[in-house]
Design a protein that fits this description.
Structural class: alpha/beta
Strand order of the largest sheet: 2-3-4-6-5
Number of helices: 3
Helix content: 25-40%
Number of strands: 6
Order of helices and strands: HHEHEEEEE
Distance between the termini: 78 Å
Radius of gyration: 23 Å
């Protein structure tokens, strides 16, 4: 009797999970879009649907950007997107940088610097936080005039051409020929 009960307890979860597998497999969307692209599209349609005629985002009280079109000459303007969309787009830049190489990017975020004692190099970045401010992702930038701000932690806007480079066997993303706006 105990042996039969043990077998039943082992077989029952397998049968339940096997039954669920067919339902989830049939409901899968077999398109070739990445998860990040799906999140971006969902966020854009949600953002468009939730903005009322006053420019307020429904349910949040937050103002939608009054200028929802990218700045002239800018391919990806992160300053006109919601915080969720910005974070998603930057994550996409980090995971598929080859899709952004050569594009002009405009972004706004927290200014940060890092000095590498081993190489003696300074690195400058614009840090973008997600909607809950718990996670952050940054993009390095190289100013064309070399006049970097003194104070870190301030909010700044930067425009530059997205590129990648390799240093010590690691690939990094950067905005080259950048300017502060």
């Amino acid at each position: 009797m105990k042996k039969a009960l043990l077998i039943l307890l082992c077989v029952l979860p397998i049968a339940i999970f096997a039954g669920c597998e067919n339902d989830s497999a049939s409901s899968r969307n077999n398109d070739n879009k990445s998860d990040v692209e799906k999140v971006l599209e969902a966020g854009m349609s949600e953002e468009n649907a939730s903005t009322d005629s006053n420019g307020d985002n429904a349910g949040t009280g937050a103002k939608a950007s009054t200028n929802s079109t990218p700045a002239e000459g800018v391919d990806v303007d992160l300053t006109v997107m919601s915080s969720t969309m910005v974070y998603s787009e930057v994550l996409n830049m980090m995971t598929t940088p080859e899709d952004y190489i050569g594009k002009v990017i405009k972004m706004e975020g927290i200014y940060a610097t890092y000095h590498d004692d081993a190489s003696g190099n300074n690195y400058y970045a614009c840090i973008i936080q997600d909607a809950t401010a718990c996670c952050a992702q940054g993009i390095e930038f190289i100013l064309s005039d070399g006049n970097y701000p003194e104070d870190t932690g301030q909010i700044l806007s930067v425009v530059g051409t997205f590129d990648t480079y390799e240093e010590n066997g690691v690939k990094y993303c950067t905005l080259r020929d950048a300017t502060l706006v």
